[in-house]
């Protein structure tokens, strides 16, 4: 089997789109078989950078609860590398998409290949703004696979270990090193009286019933940090990423005077 991953350029420019292409070729003498979910992504593609986002301060009380849940719900773990997501071509331009949770079988005859394109939007995932300058690595992953000649192949009993292919790359035109990370933006937001009051009134935050917003609005170049409660109250804090200034606080419904 031959597994390959390619990018439209190297280095890649942050903030600009790029296509990542994966190729799976059966170089063996028997049929290659594998399973995917409903999205039929044969070789997964993503990028990683050998850096970590700054987590900011250790909070206490309701601010700590909020920040902890923000990491559970929306943010990569502090020890995770910076992540670059690539979306399969047919889902490009869709705000969201889901993959049916079922097993879809695929097979590839000897000497045949499948190619898929994935689009990187030039941002760090998930919704964290431009990545920094520096080295990156695009990774293709092929998993839940076996060959026709494998024991138990007819029942997919013994899938082989996942295979990885790596493409070294560079990122240029990245974020200003002085910009706030998501964790640091949260530290600013929880000092805002309106958000603090909402947190005090809802000390048992859990993201599955109280949506938490932690995203970088790239067109506006602002951090958006907020909370929406079950009873319909919400506070959204907009923060300038270089100065840490609170630009705007949006409350819904707006509190009575």
Structure in words:
- With 257 residues, the chain is mainly beta.
- It has a domain at 2-53 and 81-172: Immunoglobulins (Immunoglobulin-like, Sandwich), CATH 2.60.40.
- The protein contains 3 helices and 15 strands.
- The protein has helices at residues 61-73, 182-189, 193-201; strands at residues 2-7, 12-13, 18-25, 32-36, 44-49, 82-88, 104-108, 113-120, 134-142, 145-147, 163-172, 212-217, 222-228, 234-239, 246-252.
- An 8-stranded mixed β-sheet has the order 1-3-8-6-5-9-11-2, with no helix packed on it. The protein has a 4-stranded antiparallel β-sheet with strand order 12-13-14-15, with helices on one face. The protein has a 3-stranded antiparallel β-sheet with strand order 7-4-10, with no helix packed on it.
- The protein is elongated.
- The model has no long low-confidence stretch (mean pLDDT 93).
Features:
single chain; 257 residues; mainly beta; Immunoglobulin-like; 8-stranded mixed β-sheet; 4-stranded antiparallel β-sheet
Short description:
The chain is mostly beta strands and 257 residues long.
In the CATH hierarchy, the architecture of one domain is: Sandwich
Query: Could you please say which CATH topology of one domain applies here?
Result: Immunoglobulin-like
Number of beta strands: 15
Strand order of the largest sheet: 1-3-8-6-5-9-11-2
**What is the CATH superfamily label of one domain?**
Immunoglobulins
The overall pLDDT, averaged over residues, is 93
Layout of SSEs?
Elements (H helix, E strand, L loop, with lengths): L1 E6 L4 E2 L4 E8 L6 E5 L7 E6 L11 H13 L8 E7 L15 E5 L4 E8 L13 E9 L2 E3 L15 E10 L9 H8 L3 H9 L10 E6 L4 E7 L5 E6 L6 E7 L5
